[in-house]
Amino acid sequence: MSNLLQIQNIRKTFPGVVALDDISLSIAPGEIHTLLGENGAGKSTLMNVLTGLYRPDRGEILFDGAPIHFNSPRDSLAVGIGMVHQHFMLVPAHTVFENILLALDGVPLLFSKKKYKQQVQTILDDLELDLDLDDPVWKLSIGAQQWIELIKLLARDCRLLILDEPTAVLTPQESARLFEVLTRLRDRGKSILFISHKMREVMELSDRVTVLKKGCSLVTLKRGEYDENRLASLMIGEDQIPMWIKPACKRDQLALEIKNLSVRNTRGRADLDNFNMKLYRGQILGVAGVAGNGQKPLAEVLTGLKEATSGRILAGDKDITNSTARSSYIAGIAHIPEDRKSIGIAPDMTVGDNLIMKNFNSKLFRRWIFQDRAAIRKNATAKIDQFAIKAGPDGNPVRYLSGGNIQKVIIARELSEKPAVLVALYPTRGLDIGSAEYVHKVIIDGANQGMSTILISEDLDELLKLSDEIVVMFRGRLVGCVDPQETTREEIGLLMSGEVQT
Amino acid sequence: MKLITEKRELSSQLFRFIAPIISVLVALFVAGFLLQAAGVNPAQAYFEILQEALGSTYGLSETLVKTTPLIFASLGVSLAFRMQIWNIGAEGQIYMGACGASGVALFSGIESHPVMITAMFLAAFLCGGLWAGVAGILRARWRVNEVIVTLLMNYIAILGVDYLIYGPWKDPKGYNFPLTAQFSDAARLTEYFDTRFHSGFFLALFCALVLYLFMERTVWGYEIKVIGSNPKAARYAGMRTGLAIFAVLFLSGAIAGIAGFGEVAGLQHRLQHGISPGYGYTAIIIAWLAKRSALGVVIVSFLMGVLLVGGDSLQLTWQLPVAFVYAFQGLILFFLLASDFFIHNRLKLVKGDHHA
Ligand SMILES: Nc1ncnc2c1ncn2[C@@H]1O[C@H](COP(=O)(O)OP(=O)(O)OP(=O)(O)O)[C@@H](O)[C@H]1O
Ligand SMILES: [Mg+2]
Known about the structure:
heterodimer; A: 502 residues; alpha/beta; 2 domains; six-stranded mixed sheet; 17 helices; B: 356 residues; ABC transporter involved in vitamin B12 uptake, BtuC; 13 helices; 72% helix; globular; binds magnesium ion
């Protein structure tokens, strides 16, 4: 079988960093090939080389047996390599159809709208996707937006589809649906290059897996040659996965109480609808729910980024609903936001500067009006070491870090001040298994010392493993509250779909 | 075959350094044709410019005299740039600063030199700052675009100063010229070497140093950088971005205002029509070319000073029209901006069948 794509001895360096050292890899027609590797191993960089965003320093890429040199993503699209980026590039005010149309080349100025629409609709029907072509994109969930990205590539008849951590933003149900479609596309001869940190998905989907480590392709294994443990040990090597034990929460001291809280969004719809919740000192409260059912607004009200329309938030016996009363309290709330790149970091500043963003004003890092550069540097070294952040050369701006490492910078910063309350949205999304375990350990350690955590996650395994109690949200309301020791994935799934209530 | 542009992922330090130098040389080369066409020997003209701007005590002093207000105004503009705030109103802020300083000089009656100078300085600082602060409040409160506000307020400031010098502040003994009375000696900065070169230049250098320390070492500089890099993250981290916008625009205008102080206290010794021949606009270009660095501002301001003085001499010695001088300066700017493009991109010839 001849290969669709063959990569030989690719090397790519950035100033002070060898991102790709020596990568060789091949992709056959009609296979799903997964890339696996620690945060910063070079997966995204490799994808960007394949789509022409970066030029490799060395090495060869053969597509259909012929060597290719790309100057821009347009070149790679022209030969049939398309990528779904993690940050979508859709025009929110346009309709689904218009967005897809924008991606097509050679649409004549006076085109027959009907004909093209028919063509796109055929693709949708074929994949049994339920999308209305006339809906504006801003109305759609992130999952639906990702479908559009994929359809854009299919409408251009791409032969190699690259997906960089597509499931990081999807609910389990949406992921399952994506896999169905990907499998079907594979069976029709499309090749798919796929990145994920979630073992369960890798096992389920891949025909072959290539493990990257520190910029080198370590090994490629066929289905049947690997299992979860084998892959994990290949990836992490001798590094140890941290161990932890979770004590039961005593529920004696109330940390936070939310009473009949409602929040309306700018479009007048209720983001939170009469929401009630209690959080105890040292408790880890899991919040399950399909994304977009009020989790983000909940986090934003608690951390002072949004105002409540009605209802009350009590901390102990203090009413902190209104933001002036809350501001002093908010200092003690750590927040791992969902939208990391857009609100979590100052991309042009160094890792060290980003690590002190929340407490730059504290005596620790300040002498009178001057910053204590030595202390800031020391803090950076300590945090980089503690969280195993691949930070690159000294003074490297955060924007050059890999997705997972940016995430680690935010977590390291938020957990550094011994917060009373942690509001964490999808904290381990995009982290490799070792790092995810480490973050779990930090959360548990915090809980042992009295930190209360609201853990918002779609990863049921994570919720079941960490939480003392799991509440389920649906359309801004609390529809269920279960004990992780006794519940099942199915029960939570049903609650999340809004079909039952407890 | 066709020509395409291609993004450079990284450009060597050396190239970054020599690109602007090459671009100035290219500009000189192209302008050479214009000079030739005007019947002037380019080599001789360029020699003349250097000779005039740097070759004598007088020339050098004139260059530094022009450099001084450029440094102040550009420092102000570049401070706002750091926070992604576009202060296009340095020109108006210079006028307001000059106006404030003149008001104190003319009407306060202070006799002590240090007290007088300090009071004038503070008045210029406040007037420039408040002038820009208006745009700051509008922007922070109602999200009114600061570019429009600062730009339009230039006209108000310039015409406002005109009103004063044609009206209430006009020197009664001035034969009806649009200027105020001369300042008393207490209100004049020290001049050196029998030239117009005055101590404002050292104040400008000091100001650059202070601003550098402010940005790179203080907590406020840090805040400005975070807000400039990502305002959403700044708000999420609990920074008061609205207050910062006002403060930065105020400071930006205040520093530009000091340029006005330097012009009236060091040079003109009175308020008159056209005290700034567009320093505030040149400052935008300087701030842009200097990227984010205070040292860069000083260097680029000096080069602009050379161009201004040398350009004037072209006009005098060769009877070239003033438009020619502008064209010459424009060419240099054009190629400097182009060099910026080539630092980040490269041109490449490709065969016609290449996918692009
Ligand atoms: N534009 C860039 N400039 C400098 N360094 C970069 C750049 N892009 C990536 N790097 C570095 O290259 C290395 C590999 O990054 P890459 O984004 O490919 O990792 P990754 O495998 O995708 O990790 P993750 O799982 O965290 O997304 C990292 O150390 C990163 O800091
Ligand atoms: Mg990545």
